[in-house]
Amino acid sequence: MKNTLEIDKKGIPPKNSASSYTLASYLPFYLESLRIRGYSELTIDMHDLAIGRFIGWSEQRGVVEPNDITRDVIQAYQRMLFYYRKKNGDPFKQVTQNRVMVTLKVFCRWLVNENHLKYSPAESIELARLPRQLPRAILSQDQIHKILSLPDLSTDIGIRDRAIMETFYSSAIRRMEMIQLQVQDLDIPQGIITIRHGKGGHQRLVPIGEKALQWVIKYMEEVRPKYEVNPTDKTLFLYENGEAMYHSRMSSMVKRYMKKAGIQSDGSCHLFRHACATHLLEAGVDIRLIQQLLGHAKTDTTAIYTRVSIGLLKKVHAEWGESTPY
Predict the structure, then answer these.
(1) Sheet strands (E) in 113-226
(2) pLDDT score at 201
């Protein structure tokens, strides 16, 4: 069995449905195909991780070549994802399980399209049904303001953290979008942020409030020049060592301030997004405008926030009750 691919003059692996090349040896070419098709590096990294783990699991069970993959193998992996428990004892969320399975489907389709498989054994695999859940917690405006007041503004880290959290709450952008922000994505005179790599690869423009904008400007003027190591790297928010921030540490940062504020919740960065959308809705902003802000493709995705504004409903209901003559 060969462990590496022979490459033709165009840099393409040989197409052969009866190939004896390993799954692992195809992975770099699959990732390259995503890059050529314009997928973001973050998405490519996620595919690399998900497919890499599947290949490692498969190899331990003697599934090494593309033709070794059967529907039973895919189903067994789906069961493993369902029963797997992390170190803290928690299972994978259903949305995580489905994301992995969708990635496997895309990988198998690529193998078929490149003639390394005759058909995709993953195509008929059904994904888990996802209940449309309300956000677990909606932070009140008082809670948001308390969290925002906690960073130590006498330190560079405190200024950076305040700028990040102010931006989260003001713009309702996703954590992924925050991490990928570039200096040039911020239009200071217009008070607009350009999201170039939103969910699904979509671009959109979002407003950033004056208060949040001032904190970002303060960070850019006083802190970022100290953190910058590579002048060609224009990532907006940086670590102290000059590296771009990544998911887990940004979540840990927000979680730390929430804990300091006495707020216990499973979420972190995304709670600012939920809070922004809910508070705007309660202020009377049209749901279609909130949909545009959040970057939702469908209005029914945004409509979930109409069900979490119970505080406003209770207030209106109480005022109505007081006005009735009985």
Answers:
(1) 186-187, 192-195, 204-207
(2) 67
pLDDT band at 121 (very low <50, low <70, confident <90, very high): very high
Residue 205 has φ and ψ, to the nearest 5°, of: -105, 135
Is 109 a residue whose pLDDT tops 60? yes
- Catalytic residue selected from 175, 197, 273, 279: 273
Q: How far is CA 221 from each of CA 67, 147, 212, 217, 225, rounded to the nearest angstrom?
A: 57, 23, 14, 6, 7
Scanning 60-184, the segments in alpha helix (DSSP H) are: 71-83, 94-113, 141-148, 156-171, 175-180
Q: What structural domains and CATH numbers belong to the chain? A: 23-113 (1.10.150), 141-320 (1.10.443.10)
Residue 244's DSSP bridge partners are 238
- Whether 279 is catalytic is no
Contacts 24+ apart (CB under 8 A), 184-190: 184/234, 185/236, 186/216, 186/236, 188/213, 188/217
For residue 277 the two structure tokens come to 């959308």
Clarify whether 270 is annotated catalytic.
yes
Q: Which of 53, 71, 196, 199 is catalytic?
A: 199
Per-residue pLDDT tens for 178-235? 898 999 999 999 888 888 877 666 778 888 889 999 999 999 999 999 999 888 889 9
HSE of 316, CA atoms in CB hemisphere, 13 A: 8
At residue 35's C-alpha, the angle toward residues 93 and 240, to 5°, is: 70
pLDDT tens digits for 136-161? 567 888 999 999 999 999 999 999 99
Q: Tell me, rounded to whole angstroms, the distance of Cα 83 from its chain centroid.
A: 24
CB neighbours of residue 175 within 10 Å: 20
Find the mean pLDDT for residues 237-261.
Answer: 89
**Is 305 annotated in the active site?**
yes
